[in-house]
Amino acid sequence: MLYYVLKVGISAFVIVAIAEIAKRSTGFAALFAAIPLTSLLAFMWMHVEGAESARIAELSSQIFWLVLPSLILFLLLPILLRQGLNFWLSLAISVAVTAACYLAMLPLLRKFGVQL
Fold it and tell me: How far is Cα 88 from Cα 65, in angstroms, rounded to an integer?
């Protein structure tokens, strides 16, 4: 149980740290957020828990392909905000379009033989 508390604590710390850094410098916060910290933590937790290297490699490959549709959110959200839409509406639209991109990506990946 202590191990899970440690995992949650470290993961939460990373998120809070990025949010706090953003208050002082959005550039540095963006840099830290752009580093795939969640993925790195997942890889480390899997390794510590004894996962096989092939399983970690499989996760890494799958993350690569699923990052591509997520990039739409980071392009669309600032466009909508700069157009004057309120934050919550901009976020909702961005998330909905990103979800649609994920749904479109999955059959495309299967067509090219990428298994998720």
Answer: 27
pTM of the model: 0.70
DSSP class of residue 113 equals T
pLDDT tens for 59-113 read: 999 889 888 999 999 999 999 999 999 999 999 999 999 999 999 998 988 888 8
Closest alpha carbon to 66 in 104, 22, 24: 104
DSSP letters along 27-58, please?
A: HHHHHHHHS-HHHHHHHHHHHHTT--HHHHHH
Residue 58 sits at φ, ψ, to 5 deg, of: -60, -45
